[in-house]
């Protein structure tokens, strides 16, 4: 009745009521089943329909093959029958003319009967042979047909079995993917519930927090930021790290802490040295001029050292190349260089032994110079520092100079050395 009403009166109230009821029942059935199960059922139905279609195609092809085989069999049987008939006619025609003259001339009527009987026997024998050959041909054709059908059926069965195995594997893979997707969906739902709980806790503070942080809460609620998308995408696993291990990170943190401590100590040392320099600045009147002289002297000295360093590097490279080369010239140069080094060492030792008294004299002269400096008015601060425990080291003066700029170093008992300048003065 329902189908009749729907077909004849589709826009009537009963038809609409039936349609709504069937739609709700279908929705309930679809809601009970998950999407993955419905997808798999649809896929299985499609595969079954494909298999049925392939079975029908195979049956049709088998029927066509059988019809062709039967036609070939009938045609072969007819050809063989015609050949046998033609052979028998040829034999009879060849046999009859030979016996006809003998029958007329020599044989009586009784002999004619005997010849007819022999012909009949011969014809029966030929017919029997034809029948046996036909039966054998039919049996052979039936056997060949059976073998061909069996082979064709076995090939079709194997092919269908392979297709079934492939489709079963596909179904298993789809089931695994469905399980993985269901697990991910569950984890996402659990993460969403946790995030919602945390968000509720954050958005619902206590009364004291509301009173103390009204402005901050209003700003936070005006533009709420959602939870990071990384937790929505993946489940947190504490044992899995995207980058380095925690031990490596801790070691790097310790190294950085040590470097920071070293930098702090260096800054403190620099502060102490700067404070000492500031303390000594009032005691030095011509400090600026002497500092400029020292800077120029230091720059010239650095440039000379760079040139000497470059020359020394070139000399070492050439010497290394000569020493490590496999030739007699290199061996001879090595021997000569060793002898030269020994000679230079002995010469340096002798020269230093000869210069010892001169150096002692220069030291005594420097001491006298320092004592003379104490009498001058410009070095009252220097004498006071020397009395307090400071030590003065003279430098940059060649022996025999009558007029020079004395540049030395004053060293505090507990601080780093500080450059100290002396005014120009004449000896004697």
Automatic annotation (TrEMBL):
Keywords, in A-Z order: Cilium biogenesis/degradation, Coiled coil, Cytoplasm, Cytoskeleton, Microtubule
One GO cellular component assignment for this chain's record is:
centriole
The record, for Gene3D superfamilies, names: Endonuclease/exonuclease/phosphatase (3.60.10.10)
- Hey, what's the signal peptide range on this chain? none
Q: Which InterPro entries match?
A: CEP162-like, Endo/exonu/phosph_ase_sf
Give the highest taxon in the source lineage: Eukaryota
Q: Where in the cell is it found?
A: Cytoplasm, Cytoskeleton, Microtubule organizing center, Centrosome, Centriole
Coiled-coil boundaries: 37-64, 157-191, 246-273
SUPFAM superfamilies this protein is in?
DNase I-like
Q: Name one GO biological process term.
A: cilium assembly
Q: Which PANTHER family match?
A: CENTROSOMAL PROTEIN OF 162 KDA
Family assignment from sequence similarity: Belongs to the CEP162 family.
Protein name, UniProt field: Centrosomal protein of 162 kDa
């Amino acid at each position: 009745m329902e189908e009749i009403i729907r077909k004849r009166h589709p826009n009537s109230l009963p038809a609409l009521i039936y349609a709504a009821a069937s739609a709700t029942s279908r929705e309930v059935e679809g809601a009970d089943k998950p999407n993955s199960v419905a997808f798999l059922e649809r896929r299985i139905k499609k595969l079954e329909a494909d298999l049925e279609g392939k079975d029908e195609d195979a049956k049709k092809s088998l029927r066509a093959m059988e019809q062709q085989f039967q036609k070939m069999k009938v045609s072969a049987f007819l050809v063989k029958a015609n050949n046998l008939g033609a052979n028998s006619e040829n034999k009879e025609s060849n046999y009859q003319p030979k016996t006809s003259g003998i029958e007329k001339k020599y044989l009586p009527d009784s002999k004619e009967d005997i010849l007819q009987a022999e012909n009949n026997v011969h014809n029966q024998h030929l017919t029997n042979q034809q029948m046996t050959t036909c039966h054998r041909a039919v049996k052979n054709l039936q056997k060949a047909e059976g073998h061909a059908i069996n082979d064709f059926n076995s090939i079709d069965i194997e092919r269908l079995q392979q297709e079934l195995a492939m489709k079963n594997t596909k179904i298993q893979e789809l089931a695994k993917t469905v399980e993985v997707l269901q697990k991910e969906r569950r984890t996402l739902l659990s993460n969403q519930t946790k995030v919602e709980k945390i968000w509720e806790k954050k958005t619902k503070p206590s009364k004291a927090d509301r009173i103390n942080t009204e402005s901050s809460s209003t700003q936070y609620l005006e533009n709420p930021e959602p939870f990071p998308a990384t937790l929505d995408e993946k489940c947190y696993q504490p044992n899995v790290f995207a980058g380095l291990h925690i031990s490596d990170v801790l070691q790097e943190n310790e190294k950085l802490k040590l470097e920071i401590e070293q930098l702090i100590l260096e800054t403190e040392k620099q502060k102490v040295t700067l404070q000492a320099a500031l303390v000594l600045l009032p005691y030095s009147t011509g400090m600026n001029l002497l500092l400029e002289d020292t800077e120029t002297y230091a720059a010239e000295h650095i440039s000379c050292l760079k040139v000497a360093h470059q020359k020394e590097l070139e000399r070492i490279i050439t010497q290394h190349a000569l020493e490590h080369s496999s030739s007699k010239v290199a061996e001879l140069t090595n021997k000569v260089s060793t002898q030269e080094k020994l000679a230079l060492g002995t010469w340096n030792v002798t020269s230093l032994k000869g210069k010892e008294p001169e150096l002692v004299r220069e030291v005594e002269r420097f001491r006298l110079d320092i004592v003379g400096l104490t009498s001058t008015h410009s070095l009252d601060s220097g004498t006071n520092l020397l009395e307090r425990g400071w030590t003065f080291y003279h430098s940059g003066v060649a022996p025999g100079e009558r007029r020079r700029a004395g540049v030395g170093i004053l060293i505090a008992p507990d601080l780093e050395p500080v450059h100290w300048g002396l005014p120009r003065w004449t000896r004697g």
